[in-house]
Amino acid sequence: MNETANRDLLIENGRLVDPSQNLDRSARLLVIDGCVAAIDPADADIPTDCDRLDASGKIVAPGLVDLGAELREPGNEEDETIESGSHAALAGGYTSVLCCSSTRPCIDSPGGVEFVRQKATKARGARIHVIGCLSKGREGDQMAELGLLADAGAVAFSDAPKSMPNDALLKRALEYCRMFDLPIIDRPEVPELAENGMMHDGRISLVLGLKGLPTEAEDLAVARDVRLAEATSGRLHVGPVSTMGAVDMIRRVKSRGIDVTASVCPHNLCLSDVELRSFDSKYKVHPPLRSGKHVETLQKAVADGTIDAIQSGHMPRSREKKMDDLDLSPFGGAALETTLATTITYMINEQLLDWSAAVDRLSTAPAKIAGIAGGSLRPGSAADIVIIDPNQNWTVNGTQFRSHCISSPLDGHSLRGRATHTIVGGEIRYRLRPELQHIA
Amino acid sequence: MSNAVQPDLTFPKNWHRRHLLDLESLSAEEISTILDVAQQLKEMTQGCRNKISLLAGKTCANLFFENSTRTRNSFSLAAKRLGADTVEFSSAGSSVAKGETFIDTAKTIEAMGVEWVVTRHGTPGTPHLLSRELDCCVLNAGDGPHGHPTQGLLDILTIRQHRGDIKGLTVALVGDIAHSRTARSNIWGLSKLGAHVIICGPPTLVSPRWTELGFEVAHHLDDILPRCDVLNLLRIQFERQRARLFPSVHEYAALYAMNGARMRKSKDDILIMAPGPINRGVEITPEVADGPHSVILEQVNNGIAVRMAALWLLSGANERAKANAKSSPAD
Predict the structure, then answer these.
(1) For residues A120 and A94, what is the distance between their CA atoms, to the nearest angstrom?
(2) pTM for the whole thing?
(3) Top-tier CATH class for A9-60+381-403+416-436
(4) Which ipTM score applies to this complex?
(5) Which residues in chain B have Cβ-Cβ distances shorter than 8 Å to A325?
(6) Do B123 and A326 touch (CB under 8 A)?
(7) CATH fold group of domain A63-370
(8) For residue A260, what is the enclosing H or E element?
(9) B143 chain-A contacts, CB cut-off 8 A
């Protein structure tokens, strides 16, 4: 099974894109003992018995890093398990995933962190890092034991995808976390304004009679978040965001030198609320699909760096749950296996991002925000690598996902670009099946 | 069956739909076709009183996930007047209460061999989902605040009977537009037929975005009253007041109730409509509800006519689709 583990590897003929070293050129990459040994090594330094991987026509980049995916285990294994989610991540080109605390029980104790770590080690998928709960029981009342969670290995704190409704708690947590230098992630939404909403509040929701999620529900929460980050000098990541108002505020506070980061989900970079006209629950996603002008604003904000990272927003839900009517069907869908292709199709191919910036938003920046290894192919770093065929056309088919979840707002869409190999610590853990390599 | 008359009705060439889901997706021509057929059927049944055996042997399933007596009975009567059988399902006490999804429930009922599923559900779009899952005809009898096409059609039929043509009329829909499927059906039906539609109510119940879609929005009934040919007074649901969308029922009545004083400011031939059930003293006072301008009970009778028309048209299109599928099996 693991014959490729820890074998030395030379990836040749590929185009190496690594924004952490400002690299975008054809180069050979040598991996020895699970680490990047050299870029363009001298022939004499290449072990004679090392494996060779021909990456002609392909992009070689640091493996993708996700700032927040729900893996649903323990408690909702019908939606996803750590094993299925970490393998879905590999298929999407991810080598590291931060998993959300929204399990049952939620991850608000060191034991919860340990459970995920053990399961992830066994799964041998992408590396799984744990986001610990920000509040005890995700109830928004008391701080979780952040120090103990940090000791157990949590890399960030958040109640996401739930927002933190308690201003005072968020402020105290931002202050308190400074001693661990770990980020707090908030999915900004004022619950009272978002209550029972099913889709973006706009013309389409008006016509369809579907209760709207108003943009101000997000804008007000972002305003609070960035103000508290400024007041406390705490490390705050806001995301995913989905509105023009959020972008505007983040841009303004960044221009004042306040250290806040933000992310966006791929579905908000390509689809609009018009899709809900079908009443199909696959379009009931979080954050909601907004109107076209928000989509355009978010695209530009990713391009100019106002939004630092693209996060999958992977919220897997079982088929039977998504089969219900729009009201009862939960928010969410699978995204780990489509985020890379969505970015290539709608951002790179539309000339909004170049490859280096795209790899930054998907890998280098999120690794830096989370404060974890990855996002770089500097010699000495772990060989977490994705090889991408940028020209492969494929049609999203949820039933072929490795995720347990088959629902995706992009199901049926034609996308361009796909991970063909995902390498974790020098081990090729994922290869795109050859029969899928040439599907037009 | 002693008073059953023999059918004499030609199937309209322009009708191809197997489902009636909303009025937004229908053309003006299709809307007129349903209204024409409804008018004919009403006359053929002496005001929806007698039976004609146009649809004998077919079964209509009422699949109601929300309470309804008026619409449900109206559909049942419409089916029975055309000779069809009816079968009733409601969510309380059925397998829906046991956790079955509504699609599974509908498929189960379809498997019993029904021609139509008439459905009411609290969530917008449920009839649209059913229409993709079922082979039988789907009629929307109300999907949350989204649509109630037969209600829109019966309102328009009533106006047409009094005014002949919809084009050029000014029709105001008054009240809780935000939560009203009746409003959303009337808005599309009337505007497609050329009426000028005014949407009137407090801003918490009438979104200013309707103007972006080309409709006139008004917040003061007294300002628009002299211009209106028709007023359709939507029912105020008391739970909206509890949700603090307006301060009190008392204040709502003062601002929007149609009363004698307001009648005197109106056109001499104004039509007063209400989809019902009406709250006497809230959106309409008894003197107006029972007065000479009120056509509320005519609406109820026309409800049976448009539902007969819808059942007949959808079933005819369904049969033609099946016949076409048989004659070209390669398709």
Answers:
(1) 14
(2) 0.92
(3) mainly beta
(4) 0.89
(5) 101-102, 121, 123, 125-126, 129
(6) yes
(7) TIM Barrel (3.20.20)
(8) strand A260-264
(9) 209
